[in-house]
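Notes from the pairing session

We agreed to fold both candidates in a single pass and log them together. This is the raw record for the first candidate, unedited. Please don't reformat it; downstream parsing expects exactly this layout.

Candidate A
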Amino acid sequence: KKNKKVLFGLELFFDPTVFLYSESQFGRTEVIDNTRNPDFVRKFSSFFKLNLFFMTNCSLFGDFLGQTFCTLGEIIGSTGGRVERTLSGIPGKKCGVIILTAEELSNCRDIATMQLCANKLDKKDFFGKSDPFLVFYRSNEDGTFTICHKTEVIKNTLNPVWQPFTIPVRALCNGDYDRTVKVDVYDWDRDGSHDFIGEFTTSYRELSRGQNQFNVYEVSGGSLFVTLLSFKVESEYTFVDFIRGNPSQPTSLHYMSPYQMNAYAMALKAVGEIIQDYDSDKLFPAYGFGAKLPPDGKISHAFPLSGDADNPNCVGIEGVLEAYFQSLRTVQLYGPTNFAPVINKVANCAAEITDGSQYFVLLMITDGVISDMVQTKEAVVNAASLPLSIIIVGVGPAEFDAMEELDGDEVRVSSRGRLAERDIVQFVPFRDYIDRSGNQVLSMARLAKDVLAEIPDQLLSFMKSRGIEPRPALSTSPLPELHRHI
């Protein structure tokens, strides 16, 4: 909702586009020509700061219109998943309003390719025929409609045949095959005031029947008919499908060979046996991150390997190994790989006991891939003020640049301008301690030294920062207990 702008005596209409960005993400809608009330087709998944710009038809540069700030949570938590925000940023001017809507995406990953044509269009242009195009809308639960696709404009015709187009099924109906799909027919005008010709409704289920008598639609407001010429559905593969681990394949670091332990199990056993002696009860809460869980395939980034959310404890390292192998048989490994949920879970435990009587150590075993670096840095910075240390063991042949960055030996980890209060992360590449065949730990003593190298200083730095003194030497009370999480 914007005003026209006068420049050099010429009245201009603007072509708006929205730029969306957060600390780690950036996106941009398409440009919509000559309109005061743009309805953008392109969708985004998770943005926090929204900026709206104009792209003018007389300049290579965009004119700033205004901005607003919000989170995805604010949109989802609002009534109907819809937020209307006033734009600001230009002193003394009303910048208009932007409407934001959000809906949880279904797991449907099919993509549909279709082609349509029309005949008997009314002649709309005084000096020619019509310039028709179609606009597709998905219906929402509250009865409103969300734009999901626009066809190209076919110039100067009364019998247009539009090019085939491909659209994700979840964009068309969000996995609900009977959800109403509305299609508007317009005649394109250069000044943006496109003439509305009529509309018709259908559904994914109807469209999926392909070309037949049911998919010839009479458009409201006249004798125009739109015909579905073809419809095809295919499964869409994602990047994750190609890179996620499959324990049944020998190429996976999680491969369960009958002859030797896999890389994760080797690292878990070698490192776990070193540090388990510092825990008195030998009960280790153990979590996995990055998997679809039975029975409904829900993705989790902090699930108990034991399968019991109320009791994630495993008895000894052997118990952890047993739970790990059992989880490989029951869950489906799945990306992305997010570190922050596990770090935050253990940090919440550490935050409950800050009197120095307990100190927590989180052992994370990873192949080096990390999908939430920004959130992980923030989790580390927040955890740096707690009685907590993090040991990251890298397995496999990947580069571990991200892990080295989290280690913070050279540059202290920071997030949103805040430096971590202290260094709490120690990274160890496990490949440095195995022989060429990848079977045996070369030096348990050297591995132990490197794994535990920073823990004493990290514990002492926390105690000193809180003014906590050790118990008297003659006391029969045990030393502060190290709680190990895996």
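Candidate B (folded immediately after A)
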Amino acid sequence: MSTALAPNALGKEQAQVLAEALPYIHAFHGKTFVIDYERSNVGHPVAWNSLGRDLALLSLVGLRLVVIHRGNVLNAELVSLINRHGGRAAGLTGVDGRFLQLRTAPMEAQCNGGLEIGVIDTTLLQMHFAKGFLPVIRPLASAPDGQVHPADGAQVAAALAAHLRASKLIVMRDAAGLTDANGQIVHRLSATEAETLGAEGRNAHLVRALRAGVGAVHVVDARRPDVLLLEILTRESRGTLVLPDGLASLVATSARYLSTDE
């Protein structure tokens, strides 16, 4: 008498996760995602290793990724980590090919040494994309005097996402998401809500990116292993999802409609 193999519970769960991820992989194939990794240090080695693996996997299934990498860890370390997991990462700075250039900021907006992002030339990035590379960028830039200056990484990531018309800007930081006045995580916001939520224009660069055509902004906890895969390839946002005003309104209306009892 033949006996059928009993399904393994873990195997079924893994198969379900893969089945859930498939529509997202299909929808995002060839789309551009900008990842702003703003941790000051590596932190937990499991989360760090997960970052390299997740970036390699997402690149291999067809997402077009750019990482803005800042903090105390060398750019080469993240490049090496991604490549060890089978990706094809290449380390760059904004000085390479002069693709990131600074200009003198207006008096009322002067900070960071009186400089702001001026020119972003994505030609070099497009060349890397065409060859299947994942650019990992250190936010250094050329100043008007020809010197190399550090640029604000958050501003670079948002501006680059806008120039590339990215489908998503994903901000990875040591926090579970954006918080309200009571310190509670807000899981979904419109651009206007995010603008009013941030004290002293804290979220202004994210709002500008959305209004320039970026499809969505995700703010996620970089300390959590697998956070990129969970955020991109599953239904629920684990951090904060910020949508353009019109789309946010449509999503909210749809959610209310679907939750209404017949």
